Amino acid sequence: MSRLPALLALTLTLALGSATTPAAAAERPLRDVVLVGNSADGTVSFLDSRTYENLGSLDVVPDLEEVLDGMGPLRRAAYEIVKQQAGGDKFVDDAHLSPDGRTLYVSRGNLGDAAAYDIASGRQLWRTHLDGLKADHAALSADGSTFVVSAITAAKTQTLDTATGRITGEFPTGTYPHENMYSPDGSRIYNMSIGVTSLPKALDALKGAKQVTVADARTLKVLRTYTFDKGVRPAVITPDEETMYAQLSYLNGFVEYDLVAGRTVRTVQMPFSAAGAALKPDDYPQNSAHHGMAMNGTHDKLCMAGTIDDYTAVVSRPDLTTDGFVHYEPGALPYWAVTAPGGTHCFVTLSNRDEVSVVEYRTAKEVARVKVGDYPQRERAAKIAEDALPGLSR
Q1: Cβ atoms of residues 169 and 189 within 8 Å
Q2: Read out DSSP for 188-227?
Q3: What is the pLDDT of residues 335-391, one digit of tens each?
Q4: Strands lying side by side in the sheet with 167-172
Q5: What CA–CA distance (Å, rounded) separates 305 from 292?
Q6: Neighbouring C-beta atoms of residue 152, cutoff 10 Å
Q7: pTM above 0.90, yes or no
Q8: From residue 24, how far is each of 29, 104, 183 by CA, in Å?
Q9: Would you say 170 and 158 are in contact if contact means Cβ atoms under 8 Å apart?
Q10: Which end of the chain has fewer CB atoms surrounding its CB within 10 Å, N or C?
């Protein structure tokens, strides 16, 4: 009988410990990282945003042969066409990390689907094919419950339940929807469309609707559209949602756009490099002269990837004066920019060099160069759970 209280106490302790497990899990240490989608080799690299160390990568096409073998003749033919137009295999278009830092969500480009992975084990949790033939840019809601992906050839954005991968809704966009982003308060989704990039510039009028579509994040009802004469490439929006800075197809620079009035306020032409100036517009990669834009944490500087010009420019706002340039090796192809956690550094992918350039906003200088996987493109700021790190390959 004397052992009964001790057993009861042990049982109660175990029960209480089990009950508090979710809270304990929520308090696990998280590390600030920048995700880098290595498009050609189908991996995502995790870079420590403070030390710039490459912490490792995760294979996000472990089922590639299974997916390809499962395609019927028509679907496989369409896959080959998309692959040709994209300039080769593009398996990672975008990647986002769950708020608890344990699950990776990926839009898988030419495979036309989205998938989720448990980072610690590398296990695929779900895979969902989207409408159309290609999955493009994505966004993740702040609470981590909704993954938003452009179904580019279907002219729509689709939303997925991150727990199951089930498609929960959609809204119409312009032709070839590209970037998706949530408003600062999470109540709206902005989508930018670029038009049919395979057509030459001379047929620009036939590329389709090039616009920004704003939808209610809860109902997916379209609230407003802004029409442009050129495709809307990477963009940033000020916290008050009154101003957008955007790169446009063929423009060697960017525009300042008044979202309240619905008009372009300023067009800023950035300098050409000798190699960039020698290119014909139809030789620009996917119609992009400049492709990659970010804003620092204090919202007074912009980071611009000069894709055909092989530089990154830091620009101060509101005057839009250039602070300085980081020049890269010819043909480096800077193709995306993201502000790392902390807001003081811009990470720029150099797609043809399989590297990421880290640029300090304050000095407009490169402070690090990091080796990643094959053909890095999209990057996203995130936090990873420390105990999930062993699941990454080094």
Answers
A1: no
A2: EEEEEE---TTS-GGGGGGS---EEEEEETTT--EEEEEE
A3: 999 999 999 999 999 999 999 999 999 999 999 999 999 999 999 999 999 999 999
A4: 135-140, 146-151, 156-161, 167-172
A5: 5
A6: 30
A7: yes
A8: 10, 21, 31
A9: yes
A10: N
